[in-house]
Specification:
Number of strands of chain B: 18
CATH class of the domain at 287-401 in chain A: Alpha Beta
Structural class of chain B: alpha/beta
Protein name (chain A): Glycerol-3-phosphate dehydrogenase subunit C
CATH class of the largest domain in chain B: Alpha Beta
Bound molecules: flavin-adenine dinucleotide
CATH architecture of the domain at 287-401 in chain A: 3-Layer(aba) Sandwich
Strand content of chain A: 5-15%
Number of strands of chain A: 8
GO biological process, one term (chain A): anaerobic respiration
Organism (chain A): Pectinatus brassicae
Oligomer: heterodimer
EC number (chain A): 1.1.5.3
Largest sheet of chain A: 4 strands, parallel
GO molecular function, one term (chain A): 4 iron, 4 sulfur cluster binding
Shape of chain B: globular
């Protein structure tokens, strides 16, 4: 049984204790943001009476640190997102980048469907950056934009020959893995096969909608949620567990759908949802995790994404990766990286994102680690951009340790 | 889920301290917590016992504890263990490079935000109230656009309470941008400003000429966001005087520092903290707790351990759930003995200096801190209850909040590690 979703959108559970203000990374970085308590629960009550005219809303990055520290279970960040979406119904958007960043799947599809398009797109990004075109679009020239892969994960997946096992999962790869870093998805399949798990995918899955909600396009997210929820429920009915390797997709599908929408089957399939490393940690608890690792003497620093922290699953990567012989890994424990999905790519938000991430960047640099490790794709970009140290998915560390 | 030796429910000061103590004694400890603790909105100072039941100030908290009413949590711990607990806390602050001052046998009087004085026991060096009493001149510093601290009120009240001192005030200009699109300025914002080179210089430049020989400065809690004394030390050197932060209102800079310090210490000793994990129930077989159960948006999970410490706090935060004429502790489903008639929950004079009836509601425990059900039987022999969840005290009136939390947490953790 899972939480009763009807508890979800109740601003009156807020006792105005201010804990969220002490923890909010955006509040710490800029006075342009009023802070989670005011923008979320306090003004939501007011919005029930008068229409909203608070541009400060736009500054919430939906990192969910407020939800993490709230002792009363107020979904502060989701209240902010709902208000933001209401606001943009009657107010112009700040920049043309909003649309593009919210609909990353559209871009990905377009680029990976045309031969050589990724080369030109990536080149285009570079040129666009140098001639200031991205700036004109409202995208920060300071951010490291994700580059596009020449072949999507789905296309790569079809070429993988798997051994069939009784334990079966369906993998919701999400846009970032599918279009930008398909090798992470391939690593997932390899690592799962090593653990006697058969992986399925579903070509009908669409973008989880997380960037749409954060960008103020909740109506588009609702359409996607309806599609995904139906498909996910059907997989669970067939006896499959659902795996995500992007923590924002995972959070959206299992939690935010329930907070924001009302489709059948959501709480039923959520019972069978796992983060990709959490699932392996569960196998480990049951004594079924394959630990035939080769030595790895690399020094790593691990950053826990905000959207993993709020899933109440602890730090599964910090349980499993230390099992690799010779490995040196420490947790950065330096708070939010600042990027928050698409937030830090926007020109007006990038300086805030870099300020938020400064502590993490410093920690990474001071650690002298060779590689960063993180489950979230855009966090990894931000870690690289801020510290100069490349970052990989924990599944990639495991794949290497298996000698694959 | 993997099994731990000791599982702690709650991430407030009592849960964190119990975790530190048990981990130091070699136990494998896990904390489950839904939300941060009260400490992050509270003062970050350790009140142990400020006033007796009659309202007279306590000079030596340990002596007063030894003579406590049997219902009070302190009576179940005793002065010897209480002292050990506070000494252990002092040792931890020392090791973390954020040493607290004070002793278990003495209270320190601290200035409040409005210039009154309150007793506390262990405090960070940024709140050394004794420096005020020792100085000849007191300079109260406010910041022009910061809310929640009124320097003129504090100045007037301090002058009234310490008539032999020369009390003056100074308003430091922040020169922050101020317009409709920018939010109000809190103590946290000023603390961030002081951490910048420009902010620090501006502060020193504005203050330096106003500091006479033998001065102590009183100011809101703005001396750094992290648990260290870098800003305090450099300022005291550069201005050649003591600086004393007032005990403050939320959002609390001082409480946040202590939370960071305790969390860092616990993590370094291998304590695993699972955030956002709401515990909704427990599995008790033959009088022993086997596991507690968490619930989220996905599913329920069981967490097994040999021993359990309940540190979920009071009504704020959900450690106790109040309904009309009833109160329960939801994890072990313990009925709290409260009057059925709601009007009997409180005295008429809500803000008087008498202990409030409702403030003393909580879980009844025996002398081992094992929870007792309404019929007086043990709920589970391997469970102990600590901190604000306990019945029998009103921290607000007697000034004992973080003291009860630390002292009961120490007793529970030490007992689970085989120490009486
Ligand atoms: C505004 C304010 C100022 C104060 N100032 C001072 C002061 O200056 N000095 C002083 O000594 N005392 C002060 N106090 C009192 C003191 O803060 C508290 O008595 C003390 O912090 C209690 O600590 P605790 O660990 O017992 O509980 P809490 O700090 O309340 O911690 C309980 C934790 O358990 C979590 N939790 C609750 N239910 C569940 C569940 N079902 N599952 C998982 N987790 C759960 C909560 O979210 C929370 O993190 C103040 C209190 C307040 C409110």
């Amino acid at each position: 049984m899972a939480i009763n979703k009807h508890h979800a959108i109740d601003p009156d559970k807020c006792t105005a204790c201010t804990i969220c203000i002490t923890a909010c990374p955006v509040t710490a970085a800029t006075r342009k943001f009023r802070g989670p308590k005011m923008t979320g629960p306090a003004l939501t009550r007011l919005r029930k009476l008068v229409s909203d005219d608070d541009p400060m809303l736009d500054y919430c990055s939906n990192c969910k640190t407020c939800d993490l520290v709230c002792p009363s279970g107020v979904p502060i960040s989701t209240l902010n997102m709902l208000a933001k979406n209401e606001y943009y119904k009657t107010h112009p958007r700040k920049s043309p980048a909003d649309d593009m960043l919210a609909h990353s799947e559209k871009m990905g599809k377009l680029i990976t469907s045309i031969p050589l398009a990724s080369t030109f797109a990536n080149l285009g990004m570079t040129i666009g950056k140098s001639v200031g075109m991205l700036g004109a679009m409202g995208i920060s020239s300071n951010a490291k934009m994700p580059s596009y892969a020449s072949e999507s994960f789905i296309s790569k997946f079809k070429k993988i020959k798997q051994t069939s096992y009784q334990r079966k999962v369906v993998f919701f790869s999400g846009c970032f893995i599918n279009y930008n870093q398909p090798e992470v998805g391939v690593d997932m399949v390899k690592v799962y096969q090593k653990n006697k798990i058969e992986v399925a995918i579903d070509e009908n899955f669409v973008c989880c909608g997380s960037p749409m909600v954060a960008g103020g396009y909740i109506d588009d997210a609702r359409v996607n949620a309806a599609k995904n929820a139906k498909l996910l429920k059907a997989w669970v009915d067939k006896g499959y567990d659902i795996i995500t390797a992007c923590t924002s997709c995972g959070l959206m599908l299992k939690q935010e759908y329930q907070e924001l929408f009302d489709f059948e089957g959501m709480s039923e399939y959520a019972e069978h949802m796992y983060d990709s490393v959490e699932y392996l940690a569960k196998l480990h608890d049951e004594g079924e995790f394959n630990t035939e690792f080769a030595n790895d003497s690399t020094e790593y620093i691990y950053h826990a994404p905000c959207h993993l922290k709020v899933q109440a699953i602890g730090r599964p990567s910090m349980e499993l990766l230390p099992l690799v012989p010779g490995i040196k890994i420490q947790e950065a424990d330096a708070g939010c990286c600042g990027i928050s999905g698409s937030y830090g790519f926007k020109a007006d938000k990038n300086p805030i994102a870099m300020k938020v991430g400064a502590k993490l960047f410093g920690k990474i640099k001071d650690s002298h680690a060779e590689l960063g490790v993180c489950e979230c794709g855009t966090c990894r970009l931000q870690m690289e951009n801020g510290s100069g140290v490349p970052a990989i998915h924990p599944l990639t560390v495991l794949r290497k340790a298996y000698g694959l | 889920m993997k099994k731990s030796d000791i599982l702690i429910i709650g991430n407030g000061i009592s849960g964190l301290f119990a975790a530190c103590v048990a981990a130091d004694k070699g136990k494998k400890v896990q904390i489950l917590s839904y939300g941060a603790g009260t400490l992050t909105i509270g003062g970050g100072i350790i009140d142990v016992l400020g006033y007796t039941d009659e309202g007279t100030p306590v000079a030596d908290p340990m002596q007063a504890i030894a003579a406590m009413d049997a219902k009070h949590p302190y009576a179940k711990v005793g002065a010897d263990t209480a002292k050990k607990a506070l000494d252990t806390f002092l040792k931890i602050t020392e090791e973390e490079g954020f040493p607290y001052i004070g002793s278990a046998n003495e209270n320190i009087w601290l200035p409040t935000a409005i210039g009154n004085f309150k007793p506390s026991c262990l405090v960070p060096r940024t709140m050394n109230g004794k420096a005020l009493i020792a100085a000849k001149n007191i300079l109260v510093i406010g910041f022009d656009t910061m809310k929640d601290f009124y320097a003129d009120m504090a100045t007037k009240n301090i002058a009234k309470r310490l008539p032999d001192k020369n009390v003056e005030q100074l308003i430091v200009e922040l020169k922050f941008e101020y317009e409709r699109d920018l939010r109000d300025i809190s103590a946290m914002d000023v603390a961030r400003w002081l951490e910048t080179e420009a902010g620090y210089r501006s502060f020193v430049d504005q203050v330096k000429s106003h500091v006479k020989p033998d001065t102590a400065i009183v100011l809101p809690p703005v001396l750094g966001l992290d648990p260290n004394y870098k800003i305090l030390d450099t300022l005291e050197k550069e201005l050649d005087c003591a600086l004393v932060e007032v005990s403050s209102l939320p959002p609390a800079v001082t409480g946040t520092r202590l939370t960071k310090m305790m969390t860092a210490y616990a993590k370094k000793r291998g304590v695993q903290i699972i955030e956002k994990a709401r515990v909704v129930g427990s599995e008790i077989i033959d009088g022993k707790c086997q596991a507690v159960i968490t619930e989220g948006f996905d599913r329920q999970r069981k967490f097994y351990a040999d021993q359990f410490i309940l540190a979920t706090g009071g009504v704020y935060g959900g450690g106790l759930v109040a309904k009309i004429g009833a109160m329960t502790e939801p994890v072990f489903n313990i009925d709290i003995d409260v009057p059925k008639v709601q009007t009997e929950w409180s005295h008429k004079d809500l803000f008087g200096d008498k202990k409030q009836i409702f403030a003393q509601f909580g879980v009844n425990v025996n002398s081992e801190l094992t929870p007792l059900a309404a019929d007086g039987k043990e709920v589970a022999s391997n469970v102990k209850v600590v901190g604000r969840s306990l019945a029998g005290y009103d921290f607000c009136v007697e000034k004992s909040g973080n003291g009860v939390a630390l002292i009961t947490a120490y007793k529970a953790a030490a007992a689970f590690c085989g120490e009486a």
